[in-house]
C-alpha cells in the first residue's frame, strides 16, 4: 500500500473510501485534498490528509459544490485524461491515511479558483 504522486492542497486523489457506514461515500472514487498536503509528514507509516469526497450525484444540497464543467482535467485510472465531473460533498470531509487508502494523485485544482474557495468556505463553516 502506497501513495502514488505528490499530495498537496488542491490535489485530486483516487482513494478507497470503504469501509464506510450509513450514507457515507464508499468505494474507490475521487476526492479533493483540503489539508496542506500530508499533515504528519515526519511519520513513516501514517500519512494523513483531509479530503472531501467527490460524487456524480445530482442532489442539490447546501453543502455540495458542483465541479465546474470542462475545467479540471484528471488522469482517470481507467478512462485516461478526462474532465472531472460531479460535486464535492463538503459535509463528508474527513482525515484519512493516504497510505492505507492507496491514494493516487490524478489531478490538481487551482486553489485560487472559485470552486476551491467555496469548498474551503463550507468546510470551515462546518467546524468553526
Proportion of strand residues: 25-35%
- Count of distinct structural domains: 1
User: What overall form do the CA principal axes indicate?
Assistant: globular
| CATH fold group | SH3 type barrels
The main sheet comes to: 7 strands, antiparallel
As a percent range, the share of helical residues equals 10-25%
Instruction: Say how many strands there are.
Output: 9
**First CA to last CA: what distance?**
34 Å
Give me the strand/helix succession.
Answer: EEEEEEEEEH
Quaternary class: single chain
**What would you report as the Rg, rounded to the nearest angstrom?**
14 Å
Mean pLDDT: 91
> Please, how many helices?
1
Q: From the helix content, strand content and strand pairing, which structural class follows?
A: mainly beta
Stretches where pLDDT is under 50 for at least 5 consecutive residues are none
**In the CATH hierarchy, what is the class?**
Mainly Beta
CATH architecture: Roll
Amino acid at each position: 500500500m502506497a501513495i502514488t504522486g505528490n499530495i498537496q492542497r488542491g490535489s485530486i486523489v483516487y482513494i478507497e473510501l470503504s469501509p464506510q457506514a450509513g450514507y457515507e461515500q464508499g468505494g474507490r472514487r475521487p476526492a479533493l485534498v483540503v489539508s496542506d498536503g500530508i499533515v504528519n509528514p515526519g511519520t513513516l507509516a501514517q500519512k494523513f490528509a483531509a479530503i472531501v469526497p467527490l460524487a456524480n450525484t445530482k442532489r442539490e444540497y447546501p453543502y455540495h459544490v458542483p465541479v465546474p464543467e470542462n475545467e479540471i482535467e484528471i488522469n482517470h485510472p481507467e478512462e485516461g485524461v478526462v474532465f472531472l465531473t460531479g460535486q464535492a460533498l463538503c459535509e463528508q470531509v474527513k482525515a484519512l491515511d493516504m497510505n492505507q487508502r492507496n491514494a493516487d494523485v490524478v489531478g490538481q485544482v487551482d486553489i485560487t479558483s472559485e470552486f476551491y474557495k467555496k469548498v474551503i468556505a463550507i468546510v470551515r463553516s462546518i467546524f468553526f
